[in-house]
Amino acid sequence: MKNDTIGTLRGSGNIYRDFDKPDADVRQLKAILATEIIKVLDKKGLSVRKAQSLTGIDAADFSRVRNADYSESGVCVNLDLRLRMDSPFRLIL
Fold first, then answer.
1. Which residues have a Cβ under 8 Å from the Cβ of 43 and sit 6 or more positions away?
2. Tell me, what's the pLDDT at 49?
3. For a Cys-Cys bond, which of 1, 5, 9, 16 suits 24, CB 3.0-4.6 Å?
4. What is the fold, at CATH topology level, of the domain defined by 21-83?
């Protein structure tokens, strides 16, 4: 039997940067904002349609966030979604 050892590699804290993805910081910010949006939707028990009626933002934008599809939404859209959710949060850049 071989005695193979498994090494440990510490990441940067940004999975996108660790895998050399383009726009790693933007992707990370979108993921963080999406996580916060989903937390509020879940905490308040909101469907994407109900969130639309409360915020005036298209349900498709909420649906894209729920499905982790950030390709069509910019950071500004995600931040706007989050700010309209009527729940305080801190953004540290």
1. 87
2. 94
3. 16
4. 434 Repressor (Amino-terminal Domain) (1.10.260)
